[in-house]
Amino acid sequence: MTETVPGSDYGDVVRNHLTWVEQANAAALDDVAELVLATVRADGTILAAGAGHSLAAVAETFYRAGGLACVRPVYHPELLPMHGAISSTAAERRSGLAAEVLREAGLAAHDVLFVFSTSGVNPYPVELAVHAADSGVPVVAVTSLAASAAAPRRAGTTLAENATVVLDNLVPPGDATYPVDSPVIAAVSTVATAFLWNLLLVRLFDKAAETGVALPLWRSANVEGGDAANSDLLRKYQSRIPQLG
Questions:
Q1: What is the DSSP string of 150-210?
Q2: Locate the SIS domain: which residues (predicted)?
Q3: Among 28, 98, 174, 178, which has the highest number of CB atoms less than 10 A from its own CB?
Q4: Coil, strand, or helix at residue 51?
């Protein structure tokens, strides 16, 4: 007799969801990998932005073993739930904060901006995309088209509608996935978004290898030689990415 593992339905949901995400985004991932490769070739910067729990995705992109060194996180402390849950929601819904944050971060030629927002309807992520696009900087939206369609349009438009390329994490409205018939628990957005980011890195690595481009990649500081390998990258990028200090 096979013993049923508690929550096994959830495991199936996540595995199936990730397969769906990979298949649905295949073409868009190739396009984004080309954008990022062009940024690396031109010695530009990848800016990564989000609010609320989407800041977990920003953390995944920054100073991460096996990740790109040319990534600058774009954020404001008010957007982090640990600095105040209610105030972080209010900050994401406040018009004008995106312009302030982008002025501080700076947008330069050859940069690309990633905006992580599963709902993609609040002023902060939408205005990030609008301002970047107006500056001629490509915008990659990592969002859920289904969640955006079901959410109130607090900015009058959506992140996806103002992006150069959309990566769809396919998260259902409300984010919860369990129980399957009436989900109230176990959000899937963080898992799906991190998976999308790493799918992108894999495509980028393969494209870079094909064209002879050396990617600036972090090594783990907890393996032999990691600190030495990272020291040159820190020297190169600290002046443009102050969060590396």
A1: HS--TTSS-TGGG-SEEEE--PPTT-EEESTTS--EEE-HHHHHHHHHHHHHHHHHHHHHH
A2: 36-210
A3: 98
A4: coil
**Separation of alpha carbons 18 and 57, rounded Å:** 16
Q: Is the pLDDT of residue 1 over 60?
A: no
Cis peptide before 179 (omega within 30 of 0): yes
Q: What is the DSSP letter of 103?
A: H
pLDDT digits (tens, 9 = 90+) for 93-139: 999 999 999 999 999 989 999 999 999 999 999 999 999 999 999 99
223: which residues sit within 8 A by CB, 6+ positions away?
Answer: none
How are the residues of the chain apportioned to helix, strand and coil, as percentages rounded to the nearest 5? 50, 15, 35
Structure tokens at 215: 């990617």
Q: Given pLDDT bands bounded at 50, 70 and 90, which one contains residue 6? A: low
The CA–CA distances, whole Å, from 212 to 46, 75, 208, 209 equal: 20, 33, 6, 5
Please, is 84 exposed, middle or buried when counting C-beta atoms within 10 Å of its C-beta (0-12, 13-18, 19+)? middle
pTM of the shown model: 0.94
Distance of CA 54 to the CA centre of its chain: 7
Name residues whose C-beta falls within 8 Å of residue 79's C-beta, 6 or more positions apart in sequence: 50, 51, 52, 55, 88, 91, 92, 97, 124
